[in-house]
Every structure is written in structure tokens, then in C-alpha cells.
Here is the input.
Amino acid sequence: MKIKKGFVLTEAAGNSLVVAVGEMADKFSGYVKLNSTGAFIWKHIEKKNMSVSELAELLAAEYDISVETATRDIEAFERTLVGAGILE
Amino acid sequence: MTDSCDNRESVENVLLRDGYYVTLTSGVSMRPLFKTHRDAVVISPPAGELRKYDVALYTYGDGRYILHRVVGVREECYLIRGDNTYRLERVPKRCVIGVMTSFNRNGKRYDLTEFSYKFYSRFWNFIYPIRYLLFKARVLLSKIKHRIFRKKG
Here is the structure.
């Protein structure tokens, strides 16, 4: 799972927001609001390219949920952000 | 520095509804801090009177939104100047609709309490007289150059 170049995470009034900068801003306007799980995933994948299973382990440990539930959440997150053109 | 985002909904409405407004920066007036489309700023409604070094978002109601730094506070207005401009504006307090609360610069998120930002904003304002003199010297040199070449031509 990898973030496309030109997207950054910012925070406003306790909300985690993904905004497009640079050339990407010509294609993508506005911002995407992430929930706490989404922000957690984002902060990990912005550091390095990670697989769903690697992330599921981390998410399960962080939120005290099963790896299966974490995997489902991550896959849903991935589908949404790939669909929005934010992840590749 | 003018706002570059989709302005179909007014910034005032977004601030009222969401309590924040995120936009990319454009223009050169806040250089070297911000570069066009490279950086994103988070604006919040002012919680009270702005203070010196705050970055204010203001509008005169003509559809343009300007993001410049407060360099002085007076009874009725703020004294405002872009980090890369040499003209002081007296902006009525009622024209200020927001204040920058954080920003993303070159991919990194900055809080306004960070030492590097606080140092920059104060230092840059402190050396304003030197920057102004250098700016005037550049303008003068440019005029002299222009005259010399015009005479030769």
C-alpha cells in the first residue's frame, strides 16, 4: 500500500485531513477526512510502503481487535483511497 | 497571498460550518515561508484579538482572500504585511475572518509553537529594515541599469 506523491496529511480542529499539494492539486481539489483508524494507517504507510498483513498486525495491537477485523478495515480503507486516486 | 482553492462556497461559510478551512497557498507574497501550491495552511476562526506575528486571513468582500502576517495591533485595525512584501496594510479588524493555526510545508506538518517557526517569524520581521534597504537598492540598481542600456541603445 503506497501513497501517491502529492498527498499530505494535516490536522485541523482534531480532524485528520488528506490534502493534495503541488501538481497533484491540479487534479484533486478539496480534502479527505480520515477517522482515527485511517489516520493510524496513513501515518504508517507515509513512512514506508507496507503490506495489508503488516498493517493488520499493527492495527490489531493498537486497537485491541482481531487481525481479521483489522484486515477488513484496512482493505476497506485501501479500496476507498485507491478509488479516490490517493493510493496506488 | 491569495487563496487558490475552490471558492464556490465562501471561506466564511466553511469556517462557520466546520470550524476550520484548509487551503493551498498561492502567490509570492509569503515567501520564503510558502511557495505556490507546495504548502497547505489550516485556518481557524479567530478566538479573540490577533497578536503580532499571527498570520491573518482577510477579505475586503471582493472575492479575494489574503493571507499575510500581523506586524502590529492598533485599536481599530491590524498592521499587516506579507513576508515578501514591503507595503504595510491597515486592515480593519472586521475584515479578518481567520487565523493560521498550522501548516504543511514541503510535506512536513508544522505547529505554530515549534521553535523553528517561531524563530523564523520573529527573525524575519526583526530584519525587515535590512530587507527593505536591500529591496530598495535592487530597485535602484535596476533603474540605473535600465538607464545605461537605454542611453547606449
About this structure: Chain B is about 30% helix and 30% strand. The first helix of chain B runs from residue 11 to 18. The radius of gyration of chain B is 17 Å.
